[in-house]
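Subject: complex prediction, re-run

Hi both,

The earlier run crashed halfway through, so I resubmitted it with identical inputs.
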Amino acid sequence: MGLSRKCILFVAMSLDGFIASSNDSLDFLKSIEKEGEDYGYKEFMDTIDTVVMGRRTYEKVMTLVPEFPHAHLRSYIITKNPKPTEGNMHFYSGNLSELIHSLKTQQGKDIFIDGGAILANSLFKINAIDEIVVSIVPFLLGDGVSLFQNSLQNKNIELISCKHYSTGLVQLHYTIPSIS
Amino acid sequence: MGLSRKCILFVAMSLDGFIASSNDSLDFLKSIEKEGEDYGYKEFMDTIDTVVMGRRTYEKVMTLVPEFPHAHLRSYIITKNPKPTEGNMHFYSGNLSELIHSLKTQQGKDIFIDGGAILANSLFKINAIDEIVVSIVPFLLGDGVSLFQNSLQNKNIELISCKHYSTGLVQLHYTIPSIS
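This time it finished cleanly. Structure:
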């Protein structure tokens, strides 16, 4: 879009490409939990001011924590069943392209695409994701929710950085060129 | 098995987990071809003396090159339709566990599992793969032959090393513990 504000998918997956088990469990992430290690999450959060999240991921998050963790940021929960806005939290059931276009034409920091796979793939399809930061967890889940669901075909992407951690997690940062 | 000879899967996949497109094309690998860069292949080949390969991969390889590239090594082509041995090349249609056990109880260098996905997953299922060296190509294929086909479930693996290259290829080397 020629604008500087980017949509960034920041996500963890097993080596075999799953972001959650088939019952939406994130237990596989326990294998890389380490005191004092956030794998760059806080640093990343400092670069964003807006969060876009799918409804199912939102509901999963709310079972894990007492309060919505992004309450201080502007956030959009993408849902088929809209609810009234709560503070900075907007329940959005309109056109996704229009939302992204609207956000990108506003001034601001980058936009955090906080999952899940359905939202990520909807955004891949409309070429709305500019960068992926994917943390590869040293685990084979075997089954579950696939991050990549055939939404981008024959697409070159570009590695920006590769970091590895003592827990065996490898964090890959790619840009997705808008034209491949 | 308590023996030192290892079965190592050395393979390249797209970020979305495919080792070939649905028509068995490897064209996506062209994106990381670079004069003089073999991504550690020769160094790896110096550590092995035996190759195990699936029939479909073997036939694909033979369409790409005039001669079998591992003719100087002992090799086993796993097939349902055995043929007579040709030089060092054995067409094997027996029990896969027995072959691997037999190879591992012999003296020798490590054993190269040279694909494809069917063989790799058959070997995952019988816990016969000790290490994976997976090169992640900065490409989204969208569809094709998946490397991981749900053969290992809820399995912790261990990162040995992570290398990244100027082409954007990232090579991850894991051990698969025989008991998770």
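Chain A touches chain B through 32 residues (CB under 8 Å).

- K.
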